[in-house]
Amino acid sequence: MKVSSKTVRCLFYFMFIAELGASLNCTTSCGNRGVDIRFPFWIKDRQPDQCGYPGFALSCNEGDDIVVELPPAGKLHIEKIDYRNQVILASDPQRCLLRQHPNFNSSVFNIQFEMSKINFTIFNCSLNNTRPPNWMAPCLSTVNYDVLAVDSELSIEGKESLLSCTKMYDLPVPRDIRLSWSSPNCGSCEATGKQCRLRKNSITELETECYGWHRQDKGAFSFKYSVHCSVFIAPSFSFFYLVCI
Ligand SMILES: *[C@@H]1O[C@H](CO)[C@@H](O)[C@H](O)[C@H]1NC(C)=O
Ligand SMILES: *[C@@H]1O[C@H](CO)[C@@H](O)[C@H](O)[C@H]1NC(C)=O
Ligand SMILES: *[C@@H]1O[C@H](CO)[C@@H](O)[C@H](O)[C@H]1NC(C)=O
Ligand SMILES: *[C@@H]1O[C@H](CO)[C@@H](O)[C@H](O)[C@H]1NC(C)=O
Ligand SMILES: *[C@@H]1O[C@H](CO)[C@@H](O)[C@H](O)[C@H]1NC(C)=O
């Protein structure tokens, strides 16, 4: 059978479009906070599963914070993701780690804390919404009682907001929380300005591949291969030309 050049051009065109279609745009963020969320992370309610790697699901809260859930510790907020070194800097605004640290496990992350130099004093208080929000430990609080974590070196003389409180104990509080991961290993791919994704047709093995979307600083993408290709629509023909220079 003789294959016409028209058929070949059409096939080429369809393969080109198929390849573009297969490259899902998996880069997103929570609001406009500037922290890019991309593979191996994905936002589980907003993006398809193939945008991420198992164990790396994130979510966005009402305040556009990026939330990672590490049961039983609770929900940490992600401040920064260093894709090259495969490290997350996280914070614990709910102070859930007062309940759990430092002995909790995560299957995907290696967790490191830097404890604050000073202890915090934990108070159990009856409800009073005039207290400074940065003292609150919502994760330890209950419906009827607020739990506060107050810098132990702070003089509590005359601190009216502690009047209806009982001191519970002193505890160092984790300050810097670093979560690092070793698998999938995409740091070296990221270092070349490219990105990882799940290798197609290897659903069972969870292999990744480094692919050629070039990442620019503002999170935009441009197609960067060693050849530049354009698709031209020829008005008098029923097919498209793919021109490469
Ligand atoms: C962490 O996980 C390991 C293995 O699953 C388990 O043996 C260990 O008890 C866990 N540690 C804590 C503090 O949960
Ligand atoms: C913090 O509290 C622990 C336990 O109560 C105590 O052993 C430690 O010396 C305290 N550290 C500081 C800096 O006060
Ligand atoms: C705080 O005190 C109340 C009353 O004594 C008690 O019911 C509650 O369990 C305490 N909260 C904590 C976290 O210990
Ligand atoms: C709440 O705290 C303020 C001082 O910060 C105090 O004047 C007020 O009486 C407290 N209210 C209750 C219900 O304890
Ligand atoms: C992918 O989506 C993000 C966020 O919606 C956007 O900033 C970016 O420009 C998109 N990239 C491409 C190649 O469309």
UniProtKB/TrEMBL annotation:
Domain Wall-associated receptor kinase galacturonan-binding: 26-90
GO MF annotations in UniProt: polysaccharide binding; ubiquitin protein ligase activity; zinc ion binding
Pathway it works in: Protein modification; protein ubiquitination
UniProt keyword annotation of Transport present: no
Presence of keyword DNA repair: no
Listed GO CC annotations: membrane
Chemical reaction(s) catalysed: S-ubiquitinyl-[E2 ubiquitin-conjugating enzyme]-L-cysteine + [acceptor protein]-L-lysine = [E2 ubiquitin-conjugating enzyme]-L-cysteine + N(6)-ubiquitinyl-[acceptor protein]-L-lysine
Swiss-Prot/TrEMBL keywords: Membrane, Metal-binding, Signal, Transferase, Transmembrane, Transmembrane helix, Ubl conjugation pathway, Zinc, Zinc-finger
Residues spanning the signal sequence: 1-23
Protein name listed in UniProt: RING-type E3 ubiquitin transferase
Gene source species: Salix koriyanagi
